[in-house]
Amino acid sequence: MTSFIGKRALASGISLIGLVILVFFLSRLTGDPTNLYLPLDASIEAREQFRDMNGFNDPLIVQFGRYVADLVRGDFGQSLQQARPAMEVVLQAFAWTLWLAVITMTCVTVAAIVIGSLAAFRVGGIFDRLATFFSLVGASAPDFWLAIVAIVIFAVNLQWLPTSGTGTPWHWVLPVAVLFIRPFGLILQVVRGSMISVLSSAYVKTARAKGVRTRPIIFVHGLRNAMLPVITVIGDQAAAILNGAVVIETIFGFPGIGKLMIDSILLRDFSVVLASIMVSALAIFIMNMLIDIAYAMLDPRIRY
Amino acid sequence: MADHLLEVCNLSVEFHTAAGTVRAVQNVSWHLDRGETLAILGESGSGKSVSASAVMNLIDMPPGRITGGRILLNGRDMLAMTAEQRRRINGCTIAMIFQDPLAHLNPVYSVGWQIAEMVTTHGGTRDTAQARARDLLARVGIPDPEAAMRKYPHQFSGGQRQRLMIAMALACKPDILIADEPTTALDVTVQAQVLDLLQELQAETGMGLLLITHDLGVVAEIADRVVVMNGGQIVETGDAAEVYRDPKHPYTRKLIDAAPGKGAMPDERDRTGQPLLRAEGLTKTYGAFRALKGVDLTIMPGETVAVVGESGSGKSTLARAILRLDDPDGGRILYRGEDLMAMAPRRLFGLRRDLQMVFQDPTQSLNPRMTVFQLISEAWVIHSDILPRARWRDRVAELLVKVGLSPDMAARYPHQFSGGQRQRIAIARALAMEPKLIVCDEAVSALDVSIQAQVIALLDGLRREFGLSYLFIAHDLPVVRDFADRVIVMKAGEIVEEGPVRRMFESPRHPYTRALLSASLDPDPAVQAARRAARHLETA
C-alpha cells in the first residue's frame, strides 16, 4: 500500500512539474499584464518601472528560473491584483470550493444511494420510474440554465433566497441545489444499474436462501458490492467540483477557486493562476488516492 | 398416511418470457423423508431445479408464477404461508447449496461473517454464531478454522469453497439440505471428497438430502431414490439402483445409454513414421507459478491424444502453448519436423490453418454479432487461398450438414442456438480451415450427456473421414476412454503417466492416475456401492 501511494505520488509529481512548466510559458504568451494594471494614461516610465518591479523585462527563461527558485523556498509569488501572496489568495478561495464540494457531494451520495437502491429493488415499479425520469432530466439539464432559472424563480420572483454572494447559510442553498442536480442524476443511474446487477447475483440468491431479511439483503449484501463502480463516478464528480465549478461560482458570485482562476486568467495574474493549478492538482491527487483506498477497503480482492 | 418431511404435490410453474409462456414444470410430485437422499436427475432445461427453487421461494414472481400444486413441509402447505414465515424456514429448516460456490459466496465479506450471519439471522447471538462458525469450519475440514474465519471466499480453493457453503448451510442444523449440482464445478478427486462429506454429515444429523444433478455417477454414488425429469415433467421415479438396472421410460434408457465410458477401447496404434506434431520440453511460467515444467508430447497423423488432469495441472496452458496462442518460455514445437517457435511469421500464418482449436464455451468463443455464415466463412477471408468467394455459400451449407445442422441456419446468430448446436458451429468453423489437427479444450464439458455423446460421435466421424488428429483436453475420464487413442495424465505442470488408452484404464501405473480413476464416478449404483465398500475397508 505504501509503495503504491509512493509510486502514484511520484507519477503525479512528475505530471505536475510538466503542467507548471507548460502553464508558465503558455500564460506568458497571453501578453503583458502591465496595460491591465496601470491606468490608460500612465507614462512610459511608470509602465517600465512596473515591468521592472515584477521582473517582466527579463528573458522568459530567467523569469522561470526565478519562479522555480522561489517555489523551492515555498514562495508562490505575489498576486498582482491583490498585492498579497498568491498562495494565500488561492487557499482562501479553495476553502470555499472545498466546502461547496463536500456539502454537495454528501447530499448527492446519500440521496443517490438510497433512492437508487430502492429503485433497483423493484425495477419497473412506480418509484423506479419516477426516480429514473427525474434523474435523467437532472442529468441532462445544462447547469447554467438551471442556475439562471433558479435565480429568477427563488431569488427574484419569490424572493426566498439571495441571488448571489456569501454571508448567511441561505447563500449556500442555490449553488448547492444547482450543483446537486447533475451528479445526483448521474450517480443515481449508476447506483441503480449496479444494484440491479448485484441483486440478481448468485450471492444475493444465497442470502435469500439463508433467510436474510430484505433490508440487509439490499443494504448489506447488495450495497457494498454495488458501490465499487459508484465510487469511481462519485470521485469523478467531486473532482469536477473541486476543480472549480466555474460556471456556477461565476453566476452566483461565489468566491471559490473556479471563479478565482477565471478572474486571474483574464487579469493575467500569473502567480495566482499557477498556484491555483497546483492546489487543484493536489486536491485531485488526494481525491483519487481516497478513491483507491475506498476501493481496497470495500473489496478484499483488491490489494495494491 | 404419515406426513413426509417435505412433499411436493402436482406443482406447476410457468415463466413469462419474451418468447411467450414457458411451462417450466408441470404436475411435478416428489417427497423426501428424514435421513434419505433423493436425487432429481435431468439435463439442462428439464426443470430439475425449478421445484427446489419453489421450495426455497427463490422464483422471482413475475416473471415466474406457480400455477398449481402444493408444497408441504411436515404437512403444512408452504405456498399458503406469509413471506415472513417462508423467510424463517429458509436456512433454518431447509438450507441450500449451489453449483458455483465462488459466485454464491459474497466476495466482500469474510467467510466467518457469512456463516455467522446464518445464525444471527435466525435469532442467535453474535457470540454463539461465531463459535458455531468456528466449529463448522473445523467439521467440514477447513485447515486452521480460526484464521479461516477472517479470510474471504477468493482465498480458498474450489473444493474448500463448497465446504464453506456446506458449513454455512448447516449452521442452523436444518432438517433438509438441498444441493443444486454441488460438485459439477469441481475436480473428480475433490468431487469424491465433497460427496463423502455430505454423506457423513447426513449420517450425523439425519437430515433429508435433496440432490439436483445431471450426473448419473453422482446419483449412483449418493442417492437412495431418483426422480428423472425431462421437459418439465417427471418421466420416472424409483429406487436409484432399480432405475439404473431396469429403466422403464425410453428417456431414462437413452440417458443411461448416453453415459460415456462403456464403449470398446481401440487397440494400440502403430506409432512409427513422422509425427504430425511433436513438443519437446515445453515450459511456461506465470509470475512465480510454473504452469509447465518441461512437457513432451507426440501426436501422430489421425491420432487422438487426450490430456487429462485437474484444474491447475497445466493442461489448458499446454494446449495454448502448442498453438502458440500463449508462447511457451522454452522448448520446441515441431510440426511435421518444422519448429513452430523458430518459424518466420509469414510461414507460421500459413500453417495456422492446419492447427485449429475448439474452446470449452461456445457462447464466448462465437462472436454474438456475426451470423453463422460470417463465422464460418471468416476462415476464407483470412486465408483467401482456400476457397474462391463464389463457392462460400455452398461450402458453408456443406459444413453445416456435416456437423448435423441444417443449411438454412446459416443466416442465424449464435444466440438462436442451443449449447450443443453452438459447439457444432464452432467445430464447423474449425473444419472450414481444413485443418490437420484440432485442439479441443474441454470442448464437450459444458454439454449435456446426450449432446456430449453426439458431439463425440461427430468428432470421431470427422476423424475417420478426413484423417484428422485431435489433442483432446478433458477432465472427464469416461469421455476420454471412449474417444482417445492415447492418454496423457498431467499434474502440477508435469506429465505423470502416458500410454495407450486401454493400458491406462486397465492397468494404470502411477498412483495419481489410479487416484483419478478411482475418484471417477461410475453411472452404475452397484459399481459405486462396491467401490464405496472397498474404500471403507481401506480406511478401516
From TrEMBL, chain A:
It holds the Pfam family BPD_transp_1. It is found in: Cell membrane. Keywords: Cell membrane, Membrane, Transmembrane, Transmembrane helix, Transport. Residues 94-291 form the ABC transmembrane type-1 domain. One of its GO terms (molecular function) is dipeptide transmembrane transporter activity. Belongs to the binding-protein-dependent transport system permease family. This is ABC transporter permease.
Automatic annotation (TrEMBL), chain B:
PROSITE patterns: ABC_TRANSPORTER_1 (PS00211), ABC_TRANSPORTER_2 (PS50893). InterPro entries: AAA+_ATPase, ABC_transp_ATP-bind, ABC_transporter-like_ATP-bd, ABC_transporter-like_CS, Oligopep_ABC_C, P-loop_NTPase. NCBIfam families: PRK10419.1, PRK11308.1. Belongs to the ABC transporter superfamily. Keywords: ATP-binding, Nucleotide-binding, Transport. This is ABC transporter ATP-binding protein. GO terms for molecular function: ATP binding; ATP hydrolysis activity. It is found in: Cell inner membrane. Signal peptide: none annotated. One of its GO terms (cellular component) is plasma membrane. GO terms for biological process: peptide transport; transmembrane transport. SMART domains: AAA (SM00382). Pfam families: ABC_tran (PF00005), oligo_HPY (PF08352). It is a peripheral membrane protein. Residues 6-256, 277-517 form the ABC transporter domain.
